[in-house]
Amino acid sequence: MCGIVGAVAERNVTPILLEGLRRLEYRGYDSAGIAVLDQDECINRVRRVGKVKELSDALQQNDIRGVLGVAHTRWATHGEPSEKNAHPHMCNKSVVIVHNGIIENHSVLREQQINEGFEFTSQTDTEVAVHQVEHYLKIEDDLLKAVRLAVADFEGAYALGVISKKENNRLVATRRGSPLVIGVGIGEYFIASDAAALLPVTRRFIYLEEGDIADIRTNALTIYNDKGDIVEREIKESELSADATSKGEYRHFMLKEIHEQPSCLIDILEGRFVNGQLLDSAFGIGIDGRSAVEILDQVKAVQIIACGTSYHAGLVARYWLEAIAGIPCRVEVASEYRYRKTVLMDDTLVVTISQSGETADTLAALREIKELTNLTLAVCNVPESSLVRESELKLMTRAGPEIGVASTKAFTTQLIALLMLVAALGKRRGLAADKIKTLFQQAQALPALIEQVLQNKADIDAWSEHFTDLDNAIFIGRGTLFPIALEGALKLKEISYIHADAYPAGELKHGPIALIDQDLPTIAIASMDGYEGKIKSNIQEILARGGKVYLFADERLDVSDLGENCYVMKVPAVDADLAPILFSIPMQLFSYFVALRKGTDVDQPRNLAKSVTVE
Ligand code: M6R
After folding, report:
1. Whose alpha carbon is nearest atom 10 of ligand 1?
2. Are the beta carbons of 122 and 91 closer than 8 angstroms?
């Protein structure tokens, strides 16, 4: 996690760095800091605990200016959020570093450096990085060479921006395992953890490869690969506009992103579902030149790997892949999969799902699995991400930047993408063309249904009032709605800090029902999927034990027998296969309104970061 930004220019870079930090704040917001080299070749550094706002307030009192600088917004890993632990880190008031990642062998390096006489002022792993560069500067007296030698000593993941007071027109940047992009200006260059941070100053970007080191000056850029050879990396023009990352008329990014879902669901099918047919070209072309058709033809089973919300999308896909496409599927969280001894059946397509494409566990699992197979597919929202670049096939979710930490539009677009995979594999196993056509016609009808749910916002808000003083809640669902119950519980936990667990409704009687009393509400979701009678019985069991139930139900469901302790909110009638997508919307709105009433920081909930680039 953490966001880094840097600049070398002929103008004052402080406002550029600050704006970059604001745009990177989703990556962490425990502390923020900036260091710039002024015209007297003095490094001025300001750091503050808390959000970028604290830093920008501090800079109002202490206006630091310069043409070379780096800045950082932190998600704490090693060392508490404090000013001392905030980046940039500095050695001998001469070398300055910002870092995203984890230097895993920091204890060994720290010991060596203490013996060498370096003084430590923080508990971070990053401080060893700056001392190591200084150590090599004493030998080489060249920033680029010193950084190259230093990173060779690091184990772990890093994206680094490094400046030295002795070189007032030089920024050295490098990455391995953490993302880093170079923004190309006219007579100026920038670096950042993602392109959106630099959109106010450029739309031209170079995405560094693993192990690349960039030597950046106002009038020259040289990139070396991990073997030390000079390499050309393509400049890509971003299609994002600077305000794609603004809240617009909405109070929070999360609310904006919830409302964007109808148009996102239209965008993701654009040019992919044509004349009643789903095109295999949606999956791109294999890295080794093999066509998607050839690769998909080979697939006999699916292994899905993901984290958090993306994992829940994978769980829905398992139901679909087995029931609709008739293909065996396993799903696992990446943090477990990557360390487990696993058995991969021949011709298994490994599908990683990730909004960011930079989630460390998912990426590490992909890298492990590539030792065994080249049948890999990334379902992802960020085309330039590591996951996409390192996977054989890619299916982009086209949701646009998602800034709110709680994932919303990324999730529903992942579901549609996975439905495309279901269709692509299903048709190879005899799934009728008509069934596929109907499935996607129904998917095309979803935006209108979502709009109807969005119109019911006020009712959902009214329910949320019942939850503001509660500490616990239970979510239940069956079939494809069980993962949606899991997702509802995750949303509620992460933004309202209410403890919530989700169960397949049939599991309650095996233990969790003991928890039920009048103070523990259950949120239930029911579509007309053939399980509706079963979940109604489970609801009756809760009501019989004095529990209260909040039921989101397909409008066709007869709820007349459920009694007054079961509050019901109708959801528009939807085909059972598509129900998990539509029912996600009330779950999102519900957690949003509870969080709003509780006064939490909806877009940047405590202890979290949008992109989890550390283990
Ligand atoms: O970028 P990814 O989809 O790989 O992120 C995985 C999880 O960190 C993410 O889905 C997380 O669970 C969400 N913030 C939950 O809303």
Report:
1. 309
2. no
Q: How many domains would you assign to the chain?
A: 3
606 domain residue, yes or no? no
CATH of the domain at 141: 3.60.20.10
Domain shared by 402 and 494, yes or no: no
- 530 Cα: distance to centroid of ligand 1 (angstroms): 31
Domain that holds residue 474: 457-598
pLDDT digits (tens, 9 = 90+) for 22-62: 999 888 889 999 999 998 899 999 999 999 999 999 999 88
Distances (CA, A) of 376 to 284, 406, 573: 12, 27, 36
* Interacting residues of 3 by C-beta distance below 8 A, sequence separation 6+: 20, 21, 24, 25, 26, 27, 28, 72, 73, 100, 192, 193, 194, 197
Q: Does residue 607 fall inside a structural domain?
A: no
Q: What distance in angstroms lies between residue 541's CA and the mean position of ligand 1's atoms?
A: 34
Q: Which of 2, 264, 307, 329 is catalytic?
A: 2
Give a yes or no: residue 44 inside a domain: yes
Closest CA to 80 of 45, 120, 124, 29: 124
- What average pLDDT does this structure show over 224-244? 88
Q: Is 335 in the pocket of ligand 1 (CB under 6 A)?
A: no
Shared-domain flag, residues 488 and 538: yes
Predicted TM-score (pTM) above 0.85: no
- Do 502 and 485 touch, CB atoms closer than 8 A? yes
Residues 44 and 168 in one domain: yes
Any atom of ligand 1 within 6 Å of the Cβ of 494: yes
Assess whether 238 and 342 both reside in one domain: no
DSSP output for 187-249: S-EEEESSGGGGTTT-SEEEEPPTT-EEEEETTEEEEE-TTS-EE----EE----GGGGS-TT
Tell me: do 338 and 477 sit in the same domain.
no
540: CATH: 3.40.50.10490
Instruction: Judge whether 91 counts as a catalytic residue.
Output: no
- 586 in a structural domain: yes
Q: What is the pLDDT of residues 110-156, one digit of tens each?
A: 999 999 999 999 999 899 999 999 999 999 889 999 999 999 999 98
